[in-house]
Amino acid sequence: MSRDLLLKGGRIVDPSQGLDTIGDVLLRDGKVEACGGAIGTPDGAEVVDVSGLVVAPGLIDVHVHLREPGREDVETVATGAHSAVAGGFTGVCAMPNTKPVTDNQATVGFVKRQGETAGFARVYPYGAISLGQKGETLAEFGEMVAAGAVAFSDDGKPVESAHLMRTALEYARAFNVPVAEHCEDMTLARGGSMNEGLMSAKLGLKGIPAEAEEIYVIRDILLAKRTGGHIHLCHLSTKGSVELVRWGKERGINVTAEVCSHHISLTEAAVEGYNTNAKMNPPLRTQEDVEALQQGVADGTIDLLVTDHAPHHYDEKEREFADAPNGIVGLETALGVNCTYLLKPGIISLAQMIDAMSCKPAKVFHLPGGTLARGSVGDVTVFDPARTWTCDPKQFKSKGRNTPYGGHTFNGQALLTVVGGRVVYRAN
Amino acid sequence: MAGPLGKDLLGLAPLSAEQIRLVLDTAIPFREISERAIKKVPTLRGATIVNLFFEASTRTRISFEFAEKRLSADTVNVAAAQSSVSKGETLVDTARNLEAMKIDMVVIRHPASGAAQFLAERIESNVINAGDGTNEHPTQGLLDLMTLRDKFGELAGRKICIVGDVLHSRVARSNIWGLTKLGADVAVCGPRSLLPNAIEEMGVTVFNRIEEAIEWADALNVLRLQLERMQAGYIPSLREYNRVFGVTSARLDKAPRDIVILHPGPMNRGVEIDSDVADGPHSVILDQVTNGVAVRMAALYLLAGGKPELAEAAKKGAP
Question: A274 and B170 in contact by Cβ < 8 A?
Answer without folding.
Answer: no
